[in-house]
Amino acid sequence: MPDLAYETRHAMRGPVAGVDEAGRGPLAGPVVAAAVILDPACIPAGIDDSKALTAARRATLHDSILGCARVGIGICTVEEIDRLNIFWATMLAMTRAVAALDPHPAFVLVDGNRCPDWEHASEAVVGGDARCLSIAAASIVAKHRRDAMMIELDLAFPGYGWASNKGYAAKVHRQALRTLGPTPHHRRSFAPVAQAELDFGPAVRV
Question: Could you tell me if 91 and 116 are in contact, meaning their C-beta atoms sit under 8 angstroms apart?
C-alpha cells in the first residue's frame, strides 16, 4: 500500500503535492491530470493505486479526497494532444493541475520517470501511484474525472462503447471506428483513428 514516506521526506519545505494522470493510451477523449495535497490529519482510508480499485470505490474515495484535501485538475483536449503529441500534452495537463492548486505546493511528486519542465521543485517517482499516498490520491481523482467525461460522451456518441472502455482500443471501439468512422473526440494522431479518417474522411458527427 502507498504511504507518506515521500511526502515526509520533503515536508520541511512546505506543502507537498502528488500528481498523476489518466488517459495517455485511449484513442478518444482528453488526458486528465490531478494534483493533490493531502491533509495528514484527514486522510481517507483505503487510498491506493486507482487501477487496484473498483469504479465504485474510486467514486467514494474521489468524493472523500475532495472533502479534505486540496485538489487541482488539469485537462488537455484531443486537439492539444494531436498538436503537441500525447507525451507533451500529458506534461501540460500535469502543469495545469499543479497551477490550479491554491496555494501552490512547495514540492511536487510526479508519477513516472520525468517531471514537466516547470519552476516547481519536484521528483519523479516510478510506480508512484502504488508507493506514494498523494500520488495515489491524484490517480484516483484523475481517473474518476476522466471516466465520468467518457461516460457522458458515450451518451452523445453511442456505438463506441465509451461508457465501458473509456476510449481505449477495445474490440467494440475498434469495430465502431471501422463501421461508424471517427468522431470529433477521437485522437487523429493515433494510428487506428488516422486510418479510419482515411477510410471515412473527416469526422462530421457533432
Answer: yes
Q: What is the mean pLDDT of residues 21-43?
A: 97
- The Cα 184–Cα 135 span in angstroms is 31
pTM of the full predicted structure?
Answer: 0.95
Element (H, E) at 55: helix 55-68
Helix (H) / strand (E) element for 145: namely helix 133-156
Give the tens place of pLDDT for each residue, 65-96: 999 999 999 999 999 999 999 999 999 999 99
Contacts (Cβ under 8 Å, ≥6 apart) of 3: 131, 132, 133
DSSP 42: B
Q: Which three cell numbers stand for residue 80?
A: 492539444
* β strands within 39-187, DSSP E: 70-76, 107-111, 122-125
Annotate the chain with DSSP letters as a single string: --BSHHHHHHGGGS-EEEEEEE-SS-SBS-EEEEEEE-BTTB--TT---GGGS-HHHHHHHHHHHHHHSEEEEEEE-HHHHHHH-HHHHHHHHHHHHHHTSSSPPSEEEEESS---SSSS-EEEETTGGGTBHHHHHHHHHHHHHHHHHHHHHHHHSTTS-HHHHTTS--HHHHHHHHHH---TTB-TTSHHHHHHHHHH-S----
Whether 137 and 64 have beta carbons less than 8 Å apart is answered as: no
